[in-house]
UniProtKB/TrEMBL annotation:
Domain Peptidase S26: 9-91
Alphabetically ordered keywords of this record: Hydrolase, Membrane, Mitochondrion, Mitochondrion inner membrane
Family recorded in the similarity comment: Belongs to the peptidase S26 family. IMP1 subfamily.
Major localisation: mitochondrion
Stated name of the protein: Peptidase S26 domain-containing protein
One GO CC annotation: mitochondrial inner membrane peptidase complex
InterPro entries reported in the protein's UniProt record: LexA/Signal_pep-like_sf (IPR036286), Mito_IMP1_subunit (IPR052064), Pept_S26A_signal_pept_1 (IPR000223), Peptidase_S26 (IPR019533)
Lineage: Eukaryota, Viridiplantae, Streptophyta, Embryophyta, Tracheophyta
NCBIfam families xrefs: sigpep_I_bact
């Protein structure tokens, strides 16, 4: 009987780990220069929570991670600068001039069907 109780404990632990990772949060490591100076180039360990996206609590300034639409095996980390419907004004090429453009943020939902 002791054999089954330890097996049951392992299965329960794995189920808890899966539910926590899928619905509550997880730990991830980021690499690369795109989030300097907030995150290190050589790697920063982040605790990522998954509740804000489900409750609609995302705001400009939040750091988000998502799967790249161009390379689905790659996870990308970026800072939100606008939500759907917001107008964003940016300098086109800050090094050669001060010409600005304004865009309206549109959310494109991509559905990927895996075989």
């Amino acid at each position: 009987m002791g054999e089954w109780s330890s097996f049951t404990a392992v299965v329960r632990g794995l189920c808890l780990l899966y539910v926590t990772n899928k619905y509550l949060g997880t730990v991830t490591i980021t690499y690369g220069p795109s989030m300097l100076p907030t995150l290190n180039v050589t790697g920063s360990m982040l605790l990522v929570e998954r509740i804000s996206t489900r409750t609609g609590k995302l705001r400009p300034g939040d750091v988000v991670i998502f799967r790249s639409p161009e390379a689905p095996r790659k996870i990308v980390c970026k800072r939100l600068i606008g939500l759907e419907g917001d107008q964003i004004t940016y300098v086109v090429d800050p090094q050669s001039g001060d010409r600005c453009e304004t865009i309206v943020v549109h959310i494109q939902r991509i559905t990927v069907f895996l075989k």
